[in-house]
Design goal:
- The protein is of the alpha/beta class.
- It has 2 domains: about 200 residues, Rossmann fold; about 150 residues, Rossmann fold (3-Layer(aba) Sandwich).
- It has 12 helices and 13 strands.
- The strands form 4 sheets. The protein has a 5-stranded mixed β-sheet with strand order 3-2-1-4-5, with helices on both faces. Strands 7-8-6-11 form a 4-stranded parallel β-sheet.
- Strand 12 and strand 13 form a beta hairpin.
- The longest helix has 22 residues.
- It is elongated.
- The chain binds 6-O-phosphono-beta-D-fructofuranose.
Length: about 425
Amino acid sequence: MPAARTRPGRLLYAQSGGVTAVINATAAGVIEAARAQGAEVYAARNGILGALREELIDTSKESKAAIAALRHTPGGAFGSCRYKLKSLEANRAEYERLIEVFRAHDIRGFLYNGGNDSADTALKISQLGKATGYDIRCIGVPKTVDNDLAVTDCCPGFGSVAKYTAISVREASLDVASMADTSTKVFILEVMGRHAGWIAAAAGLAGEGADAPPQVILFPERPFDEDAFLAKVKATVERVGWCTVVASEGIRNAEGRFLAEAGTRDAFGHSQLGGVAPVLAALVKAKLGYKYHWALPDYLQRAARHAASATDAEQAYAVGRAAVEYALADMNAVMPVIVRTRESPYRWKIEPAPLAKIANREKTMPKGFIRPDGFGITAAARRYLAPLIQGEAPPPYGKDGLPAYVQLKNVAVPRKLPAFEA
Ligand code: F6P
């Protein structure tokens, strides 16, 4: 770890893209590490948009207890956004505005908590800082349930969605097994993950062995083969009596078309996915005649802090702390990544990696993690995944019997600049 030194200027922390069950643990890591070093932290309201619009939050107004409670509170405490900054050439005005806001508030470290698109934005801002002579350190802080960031061994947020998914498959499969004789024979769970099958793969941790659930996993890395899928479901129902299917939202047919494309795109041009489970369910009913249930946990899976992985929560906190240390040690255009130093017993550490190696890249499941028949995970995948869901870190529960989550005050910093349309 580089030696930290206190430097003048403030840090600006922003959350970006889809939030996770533990992104606020990263925020807690950032704020607690900065406080320990005597550095001030502003947060941007709704991610980079808050920075552009000069909607900044003064985190010094939050109590120690409130910041500590972020460690067990899901969602994004300062708001997040999907907003793509164009290239420097296409919209230099936006980048210049960011530098102007940074200058007005003496922001000398920008900590951008997101995925590969956000790593790209942080990299571009660091380049503009250099080009314009504004002294700014840009640190990308990893986060995504999709687990698709390059270089890092895993992404904060993933371990918790993985645990929730494996738990859900284990529990729902007990349900369908009970009903199968006279009622439901096929249960289909759709999971997030975009083009990467990491979350679907994690479902495989629910059971081991040919007949254990989920008996069928559909990965976006493999083209969907309708005949092979139906044959596998039929054979499983005939042998086991029932079948649990886990389908990634990103599965495509042989022509490369998503099975479940909502027809809309976000600011980054990503297709909005979701709805593959009912498509598969209709297929099962039409071709095999089995009664089914399907579930789309959607935001439930990435908000499920009550079932978070302790390992994930710890790693999320650690990358936040490291990001502050890097910024205060004058490092620039880097991301604190998780390095697996030992598989069993699992050990990890954090180290800096260049943003240039992470920006805009996508890490999908390696071939060796998907079984040759395409419907399950290999022993190597199991070895990779298993440590990431280890440990429980339940939130405290209140008198109402529900998790006691914190709501920050989010006190606005007075504006110094004219308004900017973003
Ligand atoms: O990138 C994380 C993710 O959760 C994807 O798995 C999912 O497809 C997407 O976000 C949903 O994004 P949004 O909340 O913007 O619709």
